[in-house]
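Record format v2
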Amino acid sequence: MTSTGSLRDPAHRVSPKAVKLWLFEALIGFLVLVGGSVLLAAWVGESGWSWVPGWFAERPWVLPAAMGVLLTPFLVAEPFVRYAVHRWELSGDVVYARTGFLTREWVFVPVSRIQTVDKAQGWMERLLGLATLEIRTASHAGSSTIKGLDYEVAAGLAEQLARRAEELRDDAT
Amino acid sequence: MLLIDPVRMLPNLLVPLVGVLFVGGFSSRSYVWAAVGVVGTVVFALIRWATLTYEIVGDRLEITRSLVSRSVRTIPLERIRGVDVSIPPLHRLLGLAVLKIDTGASGGEEEGKLDGITLEEAERLKAALLRRATAARIEAAAGAAAAGAPHETAHPEAVEAAGAHVTAERTIISVPRRWLLYGPLSGAYLFTPFALAGGAIGLAFQWGDQFGLGREAAWTVGEWLWDHPYLVLVAVLLLVLAMPFVGAVMYAVFHWNFRLKERDGYLVAERGLINRRSVSLESRRVRGYEIVDAPAERWAGVVRVWAIVTGLGDSSTRGQLLPDVPRAVALQITADAIGPFRAELRPHPPVARRRRLFRAVFPWLALFAVAALSGLATRTPPWWILAVLALLLAGLGVPLGADRYRSLGHGYDGVRLSVRSGSLRRAQAVVERRAVVGWRLRQTWFQRRAGVYTLTAGVGAGQGGYTAIDVSPGQATGFPAEVTPDWLAPFVEDAPTQPRSL
């Protein structure tokens, strides 16, 4: 082993506006799950199946309520945790990015192995002036997606990476 | 030659033909229809055969079909990555072959296929295509170099050798027949007897219907069997006893006379008794290999080997380099044909053992708890049976988890890195350093509490990534830093502290 040093944080945070984006996405997930449990509770509650306990058949709203109570902390925490975790950096011709909420990921992609650099914008991202940078190599495990960048930052980084990748092109793979 | 294609299609016709005769009854009318069908198909096949032409034009292969509309498929020779020649049984009777051209395109649509050319023509065309493909690539590379583009040629010596049009062929190994006996240990084809029995029963039902033996007959048979449970038991027992034998036969049929050769910068694997298959892998694109074994194979000391190749579709069947051979032989051949791995695998931290054991045992224990509680509550035997089964599986999870931990390992010998994991299918991947295109560290919430990471080396070949499971924080940064020191250097602090968790 040549190094037992620890990883430092990537230098740059994503745009603060990304918090709104994650909040919006978390809200959609929240509504889908709670809405789904409302439907499920209504269906099971009225079915009159013998295995459904009596207390549940009388109060089917318990299920969505419990779901809502359980999920609310996640709904509130996710955007802020993500904003703290999601960071990126380009140094020494290597892209270093960290992402995640409950599961964290650190990705290292050397510019010399980059095949394509895309910037993408969903409608919500467009509204907020954000962009997602997709850095692709020949392997999905060596590819990185950086979400929630300011559009100008993403465009500048994409341009810089594409130019540098052209200069460093390495055909080994 | 002209009759070959239609003759080849006749067996395909047999089933619909029989269908027509049965459905329509054996009347003169259905005979007429059947005859029309046969003649129509033969004519169609003849026209199809007559209108398909292929030609090497300059630096590309053109396959032209002009049946109703005209379609020309153009395959640039420099894009050809491999040529497979396979000989299905009927083709063999008639001295024919199927030639498939692999261009590394993702969809099967874009690959070239010439069905029903003579064997000599297939071999000739294969040699010509591969030789010209290599030459075209050298030209392209030379052109790029002359233009001053910073083009790194990965294997100068390989290109030179190919450029000299060496047609020398070297057999690396011809697998002896007695090693076919190792086949059933892999567990492949073991369930063939059950599949065959299922198919036979299905067929019996279909034919029974045709002959007017409807549901009632089936019910009668079912009731009769219910009254004679021992017969069913004996049948199942016979099928179980047949498993290793049928498995061995199937394995032998598919891996008969397995030969690995080296020719013109290609690795060529040939195998098969009835359908003889030959797969060419361009050596230049081989990035490593994967050594696979199941518990029974470990006990016998045999392994199977697959090549890790860039841009090879369907690599699980096409990438096979060696069937079951003794481990020492496999290591020697892979070292010889691709390259050795000369380092020891390092074990993963003890907490990884705890995690493997937990994951192998806990789900079954949970199932046991649920089943036992339900059994207590309802007092019905099925729950107890389920509880006992779950407890048995939980018990089996102990050696399984321990073995999964023993499998875990990673290492680097200066040229190639290697990672290993799995128990029921243990796989050790050995990949060249230059094939690594990136690194990915992953940590679930549970892993964060245990202080371990999952480290994946992104590789632009094979599965796209090879993973070391549950490495320690030191290994998580130390291993990538060891393999590709430049990449991680900017991000590693020298302070020998644990990585910050956030």
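Chain B touches chain A through 54 residues (CB under 8 Å).
Chain B has 16 helices and 20 strands.
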